[in-house]
């Protein structure tokens, strides 16, 4: 029944984005809560066969003429053998009937050989998002990341030689044992590679991860809040001096290089999710394909879905506040007025944060003020579910 519900929404929706999930990893990093499985390589051919059938089923169900962006994440998609990687990416690319503005693939640096880079280009990929996290071996060890920092510039060079100029690097600050000097060095090395985009995230101890279990046992702990806040502020200062625009709380881009796919999430557009554990959003319906590789591979397409949720108008309003205020552009005044119409709890929250200076009107848009960005989680949480909001439609 759940699969039928999603299928009916696929027929009615006009998604602008596709997210495809490839779950294979060489090793499970201790901070990561994304669905992944350690790659034994023996399942790769069967996975690719199944993904091709999922693509065909999706194409038969959905109207895809409005798809503008594709993001292939994981896991580590570039762990697939190059011929299998090419088959997978070409199948997914075929879902975009119209003009594709951006085709992004996630990668880990140690996997981006010349052959993989050539395969990405031959498959139509425009952009690669690479997980670096840190250039300090001791901090990578804390995260249980297994790549050598020296592999990052090699991977970037392989991509550029193949013809991919749009390279995004992911970094994590607030790693236990790290200092402000360490973080400044990470930013310095990343900038020396001339990326077009940087994602800089504060480390989160996600429930159910080995890192959080180590915290529970007292073997590791977060950095001091003051240090993490200073790392965030140093990121803003350093990247601004280097010509990057801060367009989302954790994301910076050179002019014109924002991640257009992620903007679909932050603007609450519709997108399709394919692959084990891939999430989708269609006309207020949230869903996720089954997060078990064997079950996903053995099921007929389209795959079974879990976590199907028909969101209420109140939840949709909360989502719009959350996503809109993550963007530095904020929410336009007319949308704010519409969101606050007959919504007394949120109106009082907005007024309170405006009075305290945590929210501001900037170019007729409501946004989190510059000095309060470090408190963005507090402001957004207040607006997603105000204390006296009954979450009624």
Description:
The longest helix has 18 residues. The protein has two domains: 265 residues, pyruvate-formate lyase- activating enzyme (Alpha-Beta Horseshoe); 82 residues, no CATH class. The protein is built from 15 helices and 17 strands. Strand 12 and strand 13 form a beta hairpin. It has a nine-stranded mixed beta sheet, with helices on both faces. Strands 12-13-14 form a three-stranded antiparallel beta sheet, with helices on one face. It has a three-stranded antiparallel beta sheet with strand order 15-17-16. The relative contact order is 0.12. The chain is an alpha/beta fold and 393 residues long.
Q: What's the name of the CATH homologous superfamily of the largest domain?
A: tm_1862 like domain
Number of domains: 2
CATH architecture annotation of the largest domain? Alpha-Beta Horseshoe
Top CATH class of the largest domain: Alpha Beta
SS-derived structural category: alpha/beta
Low-confidence stretches: 388-393
What proportion of the residues form beta strands (DSSP E)? 15-25%
Major sheet: 9 strands, mixed
Measured as a percent range, the helix fraction is 40-55%
Average predicted confidence as pLDDT: 91
Q: Which overall shape is indicated by the principal axes computed on the Cα atoms? A: globular
> How are the strands of the largest sheet arranged?
9-10-8-7-6-5-4-1-11
Task: Work out the helix count.
Answer: 15
């Amino acid at each position: 029944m759940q699969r039928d519900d999603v299928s009916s929404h696929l027929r009615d929706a006009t998604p602008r984005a596709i997210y495809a999930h490839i779950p294979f990893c060489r090793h499970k990093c201790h901070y990561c809560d994304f669905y992944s499985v350690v790659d034994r390589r023996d399942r790769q051919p069967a996975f690719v066969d199944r993904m091709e059938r999922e693509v065909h089923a999706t194409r038969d169900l959905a109207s895809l003429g409005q798809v503008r962006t594709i993001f292939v994440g994981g896991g580590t998609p570039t762990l697939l053998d190059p011929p299998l990687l090419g088959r997978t990416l070409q199948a997914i690319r075929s879902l975009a009937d119209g003009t594709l503005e951006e085709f992004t693939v996630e990668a880990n640096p140690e996997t981006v050989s010349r052959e993989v880079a050539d395969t990405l280009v031959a498959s139509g990929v425009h952009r690669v998002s690479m997980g670096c996290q840190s250039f300090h071996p001791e901090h990578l060890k804390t995260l249980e990341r297994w790549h050598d920092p020296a592999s990052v510039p090699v991977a970037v060079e392989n991509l550029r030689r193949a013809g991919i100029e749009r390279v995004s690097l992911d970094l994590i600050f607030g790693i236990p044992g790290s200092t402000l000097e360490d973080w400044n060095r990470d930013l310095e090395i990343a900038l020396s590679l001339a990326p077009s985009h940087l994602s800089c995230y504060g480390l989160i101890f996600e429930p159910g991860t080995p890192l959080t279990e180590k915290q529970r046992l007292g073997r590791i702990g977060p950095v001091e809040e003051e240090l993490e806040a200073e790392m965030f502020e140093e990121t803003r200062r350093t990247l601004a001096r280097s010509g990057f625009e801060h367009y989302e709380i954790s994301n910076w881009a050179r002019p014109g290089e924002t991640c257009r796919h992620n903007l679909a999430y932050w603007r609450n557009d519709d997108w399709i999710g394919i692959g084990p554990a891939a999430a989708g959003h269609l006309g207020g319906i949230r869903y996720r394909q089954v997060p078990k590789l064997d079950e996903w591979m053995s099921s007929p397409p389209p795959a079974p879905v879990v976590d199907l949720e028909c969101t209420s108008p109140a939840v949709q309003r909360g989502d719009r506040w959350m996503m809109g205020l993550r963007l530095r552009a904020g929410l336009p005044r007319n949308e704010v007025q519409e969101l606050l119409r007959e919504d007394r709890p949120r109106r009082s929250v907005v007024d309170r944060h405006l009075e305290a200076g945590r929210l501001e009107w900037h170019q007729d848009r409501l946004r989190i003020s510059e000095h309060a960005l470090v408190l963005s989680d507090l402001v957004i949480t207040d607006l997603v579910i105000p204390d006296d909001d009954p979450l009624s439609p």
